[in-house]
Amino acid sequence: MKNLTLENLKAMFSAAAEVISAQEKYLCELDATCGDGDHGVAIKGAISAANDAIQASTNLKDAFFDGGMMAMSNSNGSTSSIYGTLLMGVSEGIDASAQELDAPSLAKAFEVGLASMRDIVKGDVGDKTCFDALIPAIQAMAGKSSVEELLNAAAQEADKGAKNTVNLQAKFGRARNLGEKSIGTLDPGAVSNAMIFEAFAKAFK
């Protein structure tokens, strides 16, 4: 069974950046329903910056750290903070000498990243934010026997979580001010997360 290599990671982030770039307008339209209407711009900036850094990296640990630093430096508000902190946290969970990661190692690294992010950024499943897709995706990685299975499970749970946001009332951001009127719309952050994990899974195959 194939483990995650730097080459795989570069392909995954390249695919994710391409998908998000293509969906920028749609994500902004989703965000305009209840928010500022700029999520497509923000997530495109963060993922593109991370991808640029990862393409220039020479090992897995530095790839995640450099990607996180560049995402954070892109200055797209909470989006940059969330993904920058997450990716830098994932790096903390990877051994400096690692040339590839098997499923348990990758799951552990993402768990470390998630813990780092949640120490800094508020939000949980049910709040109608990106966490409705991101947290279930990372939790779904545990116990998988292969990286392909792990990424497929993450993509499935992210998609499920994103679709469920249509039933939720927003608790953060401008959408929170709409109260019950925010129910019935998809959260753009959760949707973009689902797109990213789907791109990861497809590219790894």
Topology:
Layout: E1 4-5, H1 6-22, H2 24-34, H3 39-55, H4 60-73, H5 77-92, E2 100-101, H6 103-120, H7 131-139, H8 147-164, H9 188-204
Antiparallel strand pairs: 1-2
What does this structure look like?
The chain has 205 residues and is mainly α. The chain is 67% helix and 2% strand. The chain has nine helices and two strands, in the order βαααααβαααα. It has helices at residues 6-22, 24-34, 39-55, 60-73, 77-92, 103-120, 131-139, 147-164, 188-204; strands at 4-5, 100-101. It has a two-stranded antiparallel sheet. Helix 7 runs parallel beside helix 9 (188-204). The longest helix has 18 residues, at 103-120. The termini are close together.
Report the span from N to C terminus: 11 Å
Please tell me how large the radius of gyration is.
16 Å
Helix tally equals: 9
Helix content: 55-70%
Class by alpha and beta content = mainly alpha
The low-confidence parts are none
Numbering strands along the chain, what is their spatial order in the largest sheet? Answer: 1-2
What portion of the residues fall into strands of 2 or more residues?
under 5%
N-to-C series of helices and strands: EHHHHHEHHHH
Average pLDDT reading: 92
Outline type:
globular
Note the quaternary state here: single chain
Summarize the biggest pleated sheet. Answer: 2 strands, antiparallel
Tally of DSSP β-strands: 2
